Amino acid sequence: MLVLSRKLGEKIVIGDNIVVTVVKIDRNQIRIGIEAPHDVPVYREEIAPQRTNRQVEEVAV
């Protein structure tokens, strides 16, 4: 896992077309904005479709 520190308004770029921006910081909570192509699904972990072990291994490679 890559762990980064970002300040308000700073961005993280993933690949060629995904940008994560810190849009609000309030006590122990942050808000992030995610810009991604429409064909890239973005989910919160608690509502994401279940992944099989094989899918997790493929992502890790």
From TrEMBL:
* Record-linked InterPro entries: CsrA, CsrA_sf
UniProt superkingdom: Bacteria
SUPFAM superfamilies attached to this UniProt entry: CsrA-like
* Compartments where found: Cytoplasm
Heme as UniProt keyword: no
Please give the chief subcellular localization of this protein.
cytoplasm
- What is annotated about its quaternary structure and interactions? Homodimer; the beta-strands of each monomer intercalate to form a hydrophobic core, while the alpha-helices form wings that extend away from the core.
Biological role stated in the UniProt entry: A translational regulator that binds mRNA to regulate translation initiation and/or mRNA stability. Usually binds in the 5'-UTR at or near the Shine-Dalgarno sequence preventing ribosome-binding, thus repressing translation. Its main target seems to be the major flagellin gene, while its function is anatagonized by FliW.
What protein family is recorded? Belongs to the CsrA/RsmA family.
Q: What is this protein called?
A: Translational regulator CsrA
Source organism of this protein record: Paludisphaera mucosa
